[in-house]
Amino acid sequence: MDITQLITDDHIEQRRLFALIDELAPTDTAALKSVWTRLRVLLDTHALAEERFFYPELLKVGQGADHEDPKEETRDAIKDHNEIRDTAAEVDRKELGSPEWFDAVGACNKANSDHMDEEERQGLTDFRRHADLELRHRLGVEFLQFESEHLTGDGVVPIDRDADAYVLENG
Ligand SMILES: [Fe+2]
Ligand SMILES: [Fe+2]
User: Which residue, of 44, 64, 84, 161, has the greatest Cβ tally within 10 A?
Assistant: First the structure.
């Protein structure tokens, strides 16, 4: 097992669910609600799982990738996670299936897409190059267990973090 693969697999699932929402009509409200709820639970749980199991270890063993050091990679990621949490919460403040609701989903999709692209180029690349397979396996098990516990329940409570404090506490 490899935590970087589990994270990448989640990213594929997130892209897939956003694309499936594009396939639904505004009148498919029950389907929109169910698919969006599933996606939101995944987004929030995935971000928290990364903050608990991936970024603290990246800060310890990372050496940088894509012209950013591990602290910059982590600080950017936490800020992005806050934006994803905020744009996802905004969706639930709109009327389901309305043009404003679809616009809000689009804004969340953009925040998440931009973040995943950067995370894949930076943090994940850095970790594949510099973390040994034993560590990647051990963290993969923890990541898998945490997600499995929360994805089958009510998810997690989304809480924004101070990116600079996070890097200080975990670095
Ligand atoms: Fe991610
Ligand atoms: Fe992330």
Answer: 84
| Token output for 78 | 């936490």
CA of 112 to the centre of ligand 1 (A): 9
For residue 164, the surrounding DSSP H or E stretch is helix 163-170
Pair 21, 36: CB distance under 8 Å: yes
Q: CA 104 to CA 90: how far, in whole Å?
A: 7
Distance of CA 68 to the CA centre of its chain: 19
CA 100–ligand 2 middle distance (angstroms): 26
Q: Report CA(82)–ligand 2 centroid distance (Å).
A: 10
CA of 47 to the centre of ligand 2 (A): 5
Task: List the helix and strand counts (H, then E) for the chain.
Answer: 8, 0
pTM of the model as a whole:
0.96
Report pLDDT digits (tens) over 109-144: 999 999 999 999 999 999 999 999 999 999 999 999
- From CA 47, how far away is CA 80, in angstroms rounded? 10
Q: How far apart (Å, rounded) are the C-alpha atoms in residues 67 and 121?
A: 10
CA of 146 to the centre of ligand 1 (A): 14
